[in-house]
Amino acid sequence: MSADNDNADAQAKLIDLAAEFYDQFAGGQIPEMSIPTRTKSNIEYDEDSNVWVYGDRKSTRSANSVRGARKLLKAVYTIDFLTNQLEEDRSSTLRELYYLSESWDADEAQFSTQDESNQLIEDLEIVSEVTREDFHMRPEESGAKVMGPLLLREQTNRGDREIHCQDDVGQGGYQIPNNPDTIEFLDNDADFVLCVETGGMRDRLVENGFDEEYNTIIVHLGGQPARATRRLTKRLHEELDLPVTVFTDGDPWSYRIYGSVAYGSIKSAHLSDYLATPEAKFIGIQPKDIVEYDLPTDPLSDSDKNALESELEDPRYQTDYWEEQIELQLDIEKKSEQQALASHGLDFVTDTYLPERLSDMGII
After folding, report:
1. N or C end: fewer C-beta atoms under 10 angstroms in the chain?
2. Which ranges carry the Topoisomerase 6 subunit A/Spo11 TOPRIM domain (predicted)?
């Protein structure tokens, strides 16, 4: 589908939503908008698809109160802004939307905080079934990069560009665009995808030529990965049939980074089918690695311990593997970073650790 068609489709769905409000007015009804309740208690783990999804409970934004009327007014103004933006084929950031509202002629339509405008964009995503990327709304730069044997074509406002993610980029790699669906995969020589939590470890792998030696597409997660990063990872898996592995630090917060790639997050439960890659495998620092390799460590904090205990109750981690690793970590009361592997030499991670782990998992 062309960019023009994508814009027209997104516009039509937004206009349909605004038309519903008008029809409710015309029919003598109090305008309202119903969306899934976005609370932790209304998030369910779908065991069939292995992702987080919203439950059946709904919340209603209704104009039967001053507060509700203001929310719907803000929604109408935002829909108007978004449809004009699509008409002009332009884009803006979530931060810019917050400031742009200050120029709207109705004071009641202006946002008091960016959290309020961010939440409204999420509401519109859910009810219109159009992603914010298709609204041409961008977050601030995530800085996530890709390095590996992949040739792609990216649609840009300066025309289509073909880029090889090794030959046509520097050591920094190819920067993932806000909307990875503007990318077309043309060719690749990759055997698997390796998602890496930290920039320092990504740089180590690139400097050591890991992407070339093992035909790997290295995706820098940059901590908790942005939606664009997770979407690209899912597309690499589904469209190129590439196994996905996730290489993180050895602590409960990094396990959640893996979980967001594999199973989705509570915040974006309405997009789990779009963003999550349930087949992704964890290849990060394991508690048993801390013991076996005698890695440098830090003690677990109370919040670390509480997070691990919480993960034992999380359906995403209720497997023999995760229960064994988490219970071991609670027992040794230690955590360790990816870079701790350097205690065995700068090449240890690429010459020994990753090849052995990948071989044991049947990836190489």
Report:
1. N
2. 192-358
324 among annotated binding-site residues: no
- The domain 3-138 is classified under which CATH number: 3.40.50.150, 2.40.330.10, 3.30.450.80, 1.10.10.10? 1.10.10.10
CATH 1.10.10.10 residue spans of the chain: 3-138
Q: Strands 51-54 and 43-46: what pairing?
A: antiparallel
Tokens of 82: 């978004």
Amino acid at 195: C
Measured N-to-C along each axis, helices 66-87 and 114-128 cross at an angle, to the nearest 10 degrees, of 70
Q: Give percent above pLDDT 70 in the chain.
A: 98
Kind and range of the H or E run holding 310:
helix 302-313
Residue pair 284/247 in contact (Cβ under 8 Å)? The answer is yes
Answer yes or no: is 249 a known binding residue.
yes
Tokens read off for 133: 């990327």
Residues of the chain with CATH 3.40.1360.10: 145-360
CA distance 218 to 147: 5
Question: Which one is the CATH code of 145-360: 3.40.1360.10, 2.170.120.20, 3.30.420.40, 3.40.50.300?
Answer: 3.40.1360.10
Catalytic one of 22, 99, 258, 317: 99
- Reading across the β-sheet that carries 150-156, which strands appear in turn? 159-164, 150-156, 183-188
Q: Does the active-site annotation cover 99? A: yes
